[in-house]
Amino acid sequence: MAIGAGACGDGGGGGAGGEVDGDGVRGGALYDSWWAVIDAEAPGTDHPLWATRPDTASNTRSGADTWRCKECHGWDYEGANGAYGSGSHRTGIAGVLGTRKTQAEIVDMLANAGGHAFGSVLGEQELRDLAVFVSEWTIDTSEYIGPDGKFISDAAAGEQTFQSSCATCHGLQGLNTTVVGGEPGFEDFPGLIANDNPQEFLHKVRFGQPGTAMPPLAESPEVLGDLGAYAQTLPQQPESN
User: Fold this and answer.
1) Would you say 41 and 126 are in contact if contact means Cβ atoms under 8 Å apart?
2) Residues 141, 166, 190, 194, Cα dihedral to 10°
3) Does 90 lie in the same domain as 24?
4) What's the CATH code of the domain at 183?
5) 238: which strand partners?
6) Residue 192 pLDDT exceeds 50
7) pLDDT digits 0-9 by tens, 25-69
8) Residue 4 falls within a domain, yes or no?
9) Which end of the chain has fewer CB within 10 Å, C or N?
10) By residue range, what is the domain housing residue 201?
11) 3-state DSSP call for residue 94?
């Protein structure tokens, strides 16, 4: 999902009058991979706005990747001002964190056929879910993840959450290669993701993994920050024999 620079991050009037009826948790999954949520075919062409991204050199992805909201706005929702401000994911596009647009304005912006064009691939409910996610569920991840990429949380408390909510599928060490509802060969181990991309880890545990049996965890960001701190202590790969 390639939203133009500043589209959600600047301007727009607020107010309760602009609220819509949506599911922000489902919106968080749509932000990740909307076609997996609605069981649709992944787009085969670039998003209409992809060619207009301010930095066309750093991020050379194409096709379905360009339709993912996170590809422009990042797992930390800060776009060019966050983790995607440099590296191979950089687009130069602004984030959505702290938008002053109303939810109704976000819906209209997403549906605009001459811009984001999501009205052609998503239903009204999906657009509302995304709008509620952007306005109510995005968080400042720096409150939970330090500049060194380490979770600023209680790993001991996180171990309890892991054992009760994650270990059944992922294993006590988070190294199961066949998780519930998945095919053999799973390699996105919790310890690996938590260390490699802590912002992604936090988003995934909050909103689930689209298209899989992994559900969203209905816990506060503080509790899930503890979970991230514990996950960072887990092995990132199985030991070689």
Assistant:
1) no
2) 20
3) yes
4) 1.10.760.10
5) none
6) yes
7) 999 999 999 999 999 999 999 999 999 999 999 999 999 999 999
8) no
9) C
10) 143-231
11) strand
